[in-house]
Amino acid sequence: MSALVMVRYGEIALKGKNRGQFEQQLHRNLKDAVKDLSGKVERMHGRFMVSGPDSNLEHMLDRLSRVFGIVSVSPVTEVPLDINAIKQAAIGAVGKRRGNKNSFKIAARRANKNFPYESPELNRVLGECLLEAYPYLTVSLREPDFALAVEIGYSNAYIYLEQIPGPGGLPLGITGRSLLLLSGGIDSPAAGWLAMKRGLNLEALHFHSFPFTSTRSREKVIELSRKLAVYGRKIPLHMISVTEIQKELRSKCPDELGVILLRRIMLRLAERLSEKRGITSLITGENLGQVASQTLESIAVVSKATGLLILRPLIGFDKGEIIEIARKIDTYDTSILPYQDCCTVFVPKSPVTKPKIAVVERYEENLEMEKLLSDAFSTLETEVVRR
Amino acid sequence: MTYIYLDNSATTAPYPEVIRLTSAVMKEIYGNPSSMHSLGVAAEKTIAKARRRIASVIGVRDKEIIFTSGGTEANNLAIIGSARRNRNRGNHLITSQTEHPSVLNCCRQLEKEGFRVSYIPVDKKGVVNPETLGKLIGEETILVSIMHVNNEIGTIEPLTEIGNIVKERNRSTILHIDAVQSFTKVPVKFRQWQADLISFSSHKIHGPRGAGCLWIREGLLLEPVIYGGGQEKNLRSGTENTAAIAGFGLAAELSARANVENDGFLISLKLSFLEELKKSGLDFHINGPDPEVGAPHILNLAFPGLNAEVLLHSLEAKGLYVSAGSACHSKHPEPSHVLSAIGLDHKLLTGSLRFSFSGMNRTVEIKKAAIITADTASELYKMF
Question: What angle do CA A177, A181, A186 make, to 5 degrees?
Fold first, then answer.
């Protein structure tokens, strides 16, 4: 048996001249989302229709409802443009519905004006037919327990009961590619997801302090990348060791500047990687004022280390709001696993909150920066994480 | 990379003979032991043989052995099964603060069901005081659950004294012993302890995961915790894990034999590890019992001021696998309940590691492990 899913998209329909390009990208992304489930995607005036084996329906709905650009999806029954066929399908759909609440309405929409029944008439005819088939049902136009939607198209009619919300946003890849600085924490995956929602394809970069941090903390970052890849298909995850840099900073620089110096070095490493990967922007989970390294002054001094555009999708969010996103995208429970990460192994006792660029630069002069960077960069490993 | 595995209290490598037997059973004896045809009978016989093997290693009758999915389930059946069965007799249970979570959390669950539980403290070496325990026993006390060997620090509990005082105060109080860590390493003297229930696990003795058993003194009745098709005398429903049970039986036999033939080997590993570590002049502290007194295969050491997780990973990088005595994180320290119960101070609590040995370790690798530990810890002392 074959199942059919109607896919609706929103914002992209409003984008004027770019519409064609957006639809093509969305079409590609949808195909990609259901390819391994034997799903097929067709374009149909302002909608997409996805068909596939009935045994994969739940799985397809799950995948489709995570494709950026999608407003909602509905499993539908497709019938010929014949009133008896439509009635039968309506009876069948209502008979199989979830739940046992009994007030309903019909929401008919006639796109094909050649169909002999106008929408209000269709509502009445189908309503009567359902009341006859299921005498315990009642009609409620104001607050129905369920609504049966009927769409009259040009070659077929579609009947459905449910609309499952999609994530909205723009099709992944439409706005380009960016490098996410992915720690093990709560914020960076949420920042990555928000960037993806605006159409950015992601690569991720993680800094670790092997051997002080473990295989588990590495698996944790891979798992976080996988959770993000669910919204796309794959994320190349780059990993660089900063252990030697941390040791060097510890021996040559004041404890309280450690975090700032390390972060500036991380940005320089990110810049190197970006050049290699043809990427021109970074995404961070930075958020004003949460910790010492995220005061306005600290962020400013850190940013000066690179000329790359840095996007900070979380800058205006409260911690509670970030946690809400992390829960929604299912990264929260992974993020709070208590493994050491590169920022918790060496924790300064009192980090500066208002660093001065001149002071920071003076300490950097004492470091063999070029050697530190290229040594660290030589530890680069990349793993492509798939959903 | 060759590595040295000193995390044998977490789990052990299965014996090659056990792997062979387990896979042969999976391949050839896949029938359901409850099926009436010959494939079912073959499976039933396989389980019966494993039951005989384990019973004879412990020295009990095979019909007193109930197979479970492991030590945790055996503890659940023992504690929850006795409490629910004897609700009409009383509602009081006693256990110690350093028990395994599978005992402590059963007790916490029973508290929610209206039972009263006393969690008795231990001394600095992790030992339960039988007198203290005895004073708590009353008419209402239906169960006392104490472990034989502590899994984190290797304390051997004075079970003979505990058994004496329990049975003296209340003859009908059930005595449950968790022998998961001690089985085949420290003699399980069920008669001398006057025990009624003892839990065992397969994967701590080089057997497969997914098997364990509860010894139930003949005549003692329990309420099941898993309901279904009535397998294992109605006490543990669910189709038997034939392959794992067969492997458990063989592992018990092999492991018991090895520890008799090489009597003193485990303690010699522990003492030579310690000796080597002392030679290096490293600053460390032994948690729990004196090394000669505790279980032969468990050694818990504190490295003051170091972070256990950082040390553990640094050892791992050099091919030495151990356990952190406490799962901790600089932001969310959750110190081990055992180390807290023996009153270790914070500086030691967060820097403790457990080294646990097995008959599969070799004396040369133990010396090497001690040198790696000494070198790594002194490097870290300089850095942090």
Answer: 120
For B33, half-sphere exposure in the C-beta direction (CA atoms, 13 angstrom radius) is: 22
What letter represents residue A62's amino acid? D
Which residues fall within 8 angstroms of residue B71, CB to CB, at 6 or more apart? B100, B102, B178, B180, B199, B200, B201, B204, B212
Q: Are A345 and B309 in contact (CB under 8 A)?
A: no
Q: Is B312 on the interface with A (CB under 8 A)?
A: yes
* A338 with B331: Cβ contact below 8 A: yes
Chain A hits for B329, Cβ within 8 Å? 338-340, 344
Q: Is the pLDDT of residue A341 over 80?
A: no
| Tokens of residue A363, six digits | 């300490």
Q: Is B328 designated active site?
A: yes
Closest CA to B105 of B73, B70, B150: B73
ipTM: 0.72
> How far is the first Cα of chain B from the last one, in angstroms, to the nearest whole number?
28
Return the sign of the alpha-carbon dihedral for residues A73, A78, A82, A83. Answer: negative
Domains annotated on chain B, with CATH? 16-258 (3.40.640.10), 263-383 (3.90.1150.10)
Specify the pairing of strand A47-53 against strand A2-9: antiparallel
Interface check for B2 against chain A (CB to CB < 8 A): the answer is: no
As given in the structure block, the two tokens for residue A141 are: 């136009």
Q: Are B54 and B213 in contact (CB under 8 A)?
A: yes
Distance between CA atoms of B291 and B196, rounded to whole angstroms?
30
What are the boundaries of each domain within chain A? 2-165, 176-386
* Dihedral sign of CA atoms A127, A128, A129, A131 in order: positive
Q: What is the DSSP string of B168-199?
A: HH-TT-EEEEE-TTTTTTS---HHHHT-SEEE
Please report, in tens digits, the pLDDT of each residue of chain B (384 residues total).
Answer: 789 999 999 999 999 999 999 999 999 999 999 999 999 999 999 999 999 999 999 999 999 999 999 999 999 999 999 999 999 999 999 999 999 999 999 999 999 999 999 999 999 999 999 999 999 999 999 999 999 999 999 999 999 999 999 999 999 999 999 999 999 999 999 999 999 999 999 999 999 999 999 999 999 999 999 999 999 999 999 999 999 999 999 999 999 999 999 999 999 999 999 999 999 999 999 999 999 999 999 999 999 989 898 999 999 999 999 998 644 444 445 789 999 999 998 889 889 999 999 999 999 999 999 999 999 999 999 877
* Strand boundaries in B104-243, DSSP class E: 116-120, 141-147, 174-178, 197-201, 212-216
Q: What is the C-alpha separation between B171 and B271, in angstroms, rounded?
A: 41
Cβ proximity of B210 and B282 under 8 Å: no
Q: Per-residue pLDDT tens for A47-102?
A: 999 999 999 999 999 999 999 999 999 999 999 999 999 999 999 999 888 777 88
Return the CATH superfamily for domain A176-386. Answer: HUPs (3.40.50.620)
| Contact check, Cβ <8 Å, B313/A214 | yes
Residue A235, both tokens: 């994320």
CA angle A92/A96/A99 to nearest 5° reads 140
How do strand B174-178 and strand B141-147 relate by DSSP bridges?
Answer: parallel
| Domain A2-165: CATH architecture, name and number where available | 2-Layer Sandwich (3.30)
Tokens of B213: 């058993």
Other residues' Cβ atoms within 10 Å of the Cβ of residue B360: 13
Residues 314-353 of B with CB under 8 A from A: 314, 316-317, 327-332, 334
Three-state secondary structure of A256-271: HHHHHHHHHHHHHHHH
Radius of gyration, CA atoms only, chain A: 27
Of the residues A340, A344, A346, A347, the best mutation for testing chain B's interface (the one with the most B CB atoms within 10 Å of its CB) is: A340
Contact (Cβ atoms closer than 8 angstroms) between residue A211 and residue A234: no
Q: Mark out the alpha helices in A134-236 (DSSP H runs).
A: 187-197, 215-229
